[in-house]
Amino acid sequence: MAAHLSYGRVNLNILREAARKDLREFLDKCAGSKAIVWDEYLTGPFGLIAQYSLLKEHEVEKMFTLKSGRLPPADVKNIIFFVRPRLELMDIIAENILSEDKLQTPREFNILFVPRRSMLCEQRLKEQGVLGSFTNIDEYILDLIPYDGDLLSMESESAFRECYLENDQTSLYHTAKGLMTLQALYGTIPQIFGKGECARHVANMMLRMKREFAGSQTQILPVFDTLLLLDRNVDLLTPLATQLTYEGLIDEIYGITNGYVKLPPEKFAQKKQGEGGKDLPTEPKKMPLNSAEELYAEIRDKNFNAVGAALSKKAKIISAAFEERHNAKTVGEIKQFVSQLPHMQAARTSLANHTSIAELIKDITTSEAFFDNLTVEQEFMTGVDTDKVNTYIEDCIAQKDPLLKILRLVCMQSVCNNGLKQKVLDFYKREILQTYGYEHLLTLNNLEKVGLLKSQITTRNNYPTIRKTLKLWMEDANEQNPNDISYVYSGYAPLSVRLTQLLARPGWRSIEEVLKLLPGPHFEERQQLPPGLHKKRQQGENRTTLVFFLGGVTYAEIAALRFLSQMEDSGTEYIIATTKLINGTSWVKSLMDRPDQQV
Amino acid sequence: FYVKASYKEKRLEARLSLLQSAVDEYSKAKNEFAAKATEEEMRLLRFQRRLEEDKGEHLMGMSLQDSMQILLSVGLHKQAEQLYKDFRVPDKRYWWLKLTALADKEDWEELEKF
């Protein structure tokens, strides 16, 4: 079930097992039957660590979601709250407990904070007069969650907002802690590179923690050679662009959460004779997406224009395999064929599923609106007319297209032009406020604060310089058989990934000038390895780099990094870690202020 | 500066006075754009209230664009026109709006006139 985690260059299953062990230990601490009350946000990420069956083995009998009022009745000895350390959640818990006591048999209460316990929260519980009711208060350290063979995420939705808007560095602390856990399991990472303010902070914290633990050196041969820390605000442009890989598009259109996607059910209705049309499923179809599925692993990172061809090729292979049964003559041959059947059946289902998904996406990508949008994006990225009010954006506002789409485009223009002229910026802002309502003034303020929107102060626009030196725009991107990472956006090569590529070869020294144009410091640190642990590299063996995106990473960037890993002469394999998997829409959304929603 | 967060929650009169203090704060912070936009918001709210009293149309809290659309679709062209002038709405956007609103209503006569 989690086999796909161990296929990669680095066996991430070790991390998952460690997380499961901690969880089991905590559950065993509370003897007897138990019910878990979930902070709803946590259920998704937890599903990736432990299935219900594991919990059941440890006498978990009921599960509820946390809500105010009275707890639902359950005949169990322990109640365990699994929560994030948030004050508003503490209030709910207190309410739960206070409305409880008068009832029948007393139950034991426990709290498990994920990922850290906080003094503030305990103080709040004390104020509410319920702190004494808990038998156990503990923390469950869950920083980096393995998502796939080469992908780790903290799934902390607001990390970007906290770091860059609210100047709250809690998530950076979690990051540093998470990286320490990783080093405890996989050995000290000898080289650390970084670019950006937050990267600097994380590296400093790591080095400090390292000093604190001096003496307790791990005697593990290092698995990672290099760690690269990248601030999201070094590359604000990439997430704004529409991703054009298969996985990226699924995320853009339907949204992937915790490795699952929800799709409209119509396309997947089982066509059985006799009961056709009677009970069409109304629930959206939920599908897991990871590299455990052979076909998906193959096509996820392809440019969407190449997916069709790959699917039809696969279809031919599968039907050819089925045809083989006619050639089977001897009993042995037939037996062998039958033994392969389940595998082939699975392949066929997965092919059918992905063909349906591809059809759904194709309907959208071939639409005029999608094409127009893409054209404008590409104009911005190549630097066409970025200093004027764009007529397409104007029209979109007039037709009241989704606000997020507008914000994405306006921000993109601003980033590509290194800020907009005051007049242009004010025009957009006025248009947005008048059309979508004045309450969005706060959102616009936020966007300006993190640098996504800004007015041009200097007349110099350094985006073209950056674009040229780093070759961010490739005229002849080959979508079918890519030879450069720019295929993931059909022409635009993600800045972040380009930096990663250049770090491996020829090194950042060659691009000092450009690095200075990007925000934040760049740095290099070395961590001493205990003698005897220096890896003796065999000829032709690849280096392994862990790339950590502080503030989120998109699927297209992941695809580009995977592509680099696979290139024969790159000599480096990449493992990706991030605070959150994002796309432009979810990212801009996390920066919005919606007072009406909080009420 | 952060009075802005509070002004969302209160209603009507209280809201207007909170907005006024937001305007003051914005001007103090030399954020001209925000100050002007907030003033505009107050103007819109007052207008909406007047309309609600006169015509019984519920517009409170809607965006300018939505207000104009409703006005057009119930045939209050004069009021919509007034908003368009008062708030210096760009022609392009207003025409788009008027076209779609009238077409939705299938008010071809008015469309002819326009």
From TrEMBL, chain A:
Keyword set includes Membrane: yes
InterPro entries attached to this UniProt entry: Sec-1-like_dom1, Sec-1-like_dom3a, Sec1-like, Sec1-like_dom2, Sec1-like_sf, VPS33_dom3b
Entry membrane topology: Peripheral membrane protein
UniProt keyword terms in alphabetical order: Cytoplasmic vesicle, Endosome, Lysosome, Membrane, Protein transport, Transport
Pfam family, one: Sec1
Localization per Swiss-Prot or TrEMBL: Cytoplasmic vesicle, Autophagosome; Cytoplasmic vesicle, Clathrin-coated vesicle; Early endosome; Late endosome membrane
Biological process, per Gene Ontology: protein transport; vesicle-mediated transport
GO cellular component: autophagosome; clathrin-coated vesicle; early endosome; late endosome membrane; lysosomal membrane
Function: Plays a role in vesicle-mediated protein trafficking to lysosomal compartments including the endocytic membrane transport and autophagic pathways. Believed to act as a core component of the putative HOPS and CORVET endosomal tethering complexes which are proposed to be involved in the Rab5-to-Rab7 endosome conversion probably implicating MON1A/B, and via binding SNAREs and SNARE complexes to mediate tethering and docking events during SNARE-mediated membrane fusion.
Family: Belongs to the STXBP/unc-18/SEC1 family.
Protein name as catalogued: Vacuolar protein sorting-associated protein 33A
